[in-house]
Amino acid sequence: MKILYGVQGTGNGHIARARAMSEAFKMHNVQVDFLFSGRAPEKYFSMEAFGDYQTRRGFTFETKKGSVSYTKTALSNNLMQFFKEVTQLDLSSYDLVINDFEPVSAWAARKQKKPCIGISHQNAFRYSVPLKGANWIDKSVIEYFAPAQHHIGLHWYHYDQPILPPIIHTSSEVSDEGDFVLVYLPFEAIEDITDLLFHFNQQPFICYHPDVMESSQVENIELQPLSHGRFQHHLHRCRGVIANGGFELPSEALSLGKKLLLKPLAGQFEQQSNVATLDQLGLATSMDSLDISSVRQWLRDSHVESVTYPDVAKAIAHWVVEGDWNTQARLADKLWQQVDFPSYVSHL
């Protein structure tokens, strides 16, 4: 079997899932080629796991000071270029396209009538799960942005739907917990982040941000450029995580037993829904802005217990290779039976 795996490159969570899936497929006699879109080629980092991967422009969204900018998003995307990329992507040598919300490979698969399996957190919103702030445009994007014949959604709880638990990709590192808090707020201005954290001068922070080019120490804040390996090291050792409302980082933090303070990206229904879901489940604390009082209270909160998730990537890879792709509900039931939530989690 030869697979083209398309990955949405705008968020590092999609790439983290692809790393886990890449390792899982190595256990099978398959060739997996990777294609990424949504980010300038020079902006990708720590991509060794994907070999000779391809990039395309695809589609992306633009932000400004923690909010989606629809004007900048419209101006930065080129519909004619997208159609050209779809038309020129030759899938004749592939048996299957797997897609993590990546539109070029998804639409090329539809155009060339290749089987396509969509595996993404976004696919969970095709089912009856909590939504917050979703309008008809958002629902249309979920429906049409990256079409597939089989849709596998990933979420933190099943809500009696045929969706799967998160794909977790963390290193096997075992280390003692430090006293620092890990901060990853890539959609916020770095000046706004440091202004917030300076108020807690007795608390050390390690902050990763795409605008940081080299490591430096500014008062109680250690600023770090993006690096998958270093970030994983600090994620294992931190006492808590302050982040936006993506899916993969909170999933990794939950599996490691790290408390979470999440600030969703304004105007992005997925992040708003994610944060509301974790808040309702009792698995995270939320704040709508970079709020001093919210951070202060969260720092005082006690430690949390970890959520135990099975090896979802391994199970999906086996399911894909087996070829019986109409058994998604059975796969979901099997995996959710292996999930162990802390006793304080509110099951909705």
From TrEMBL:
This is Glycosyltransferase. It comes from Vibrio alfacsensis. InterPro entries: MJ1255-like.
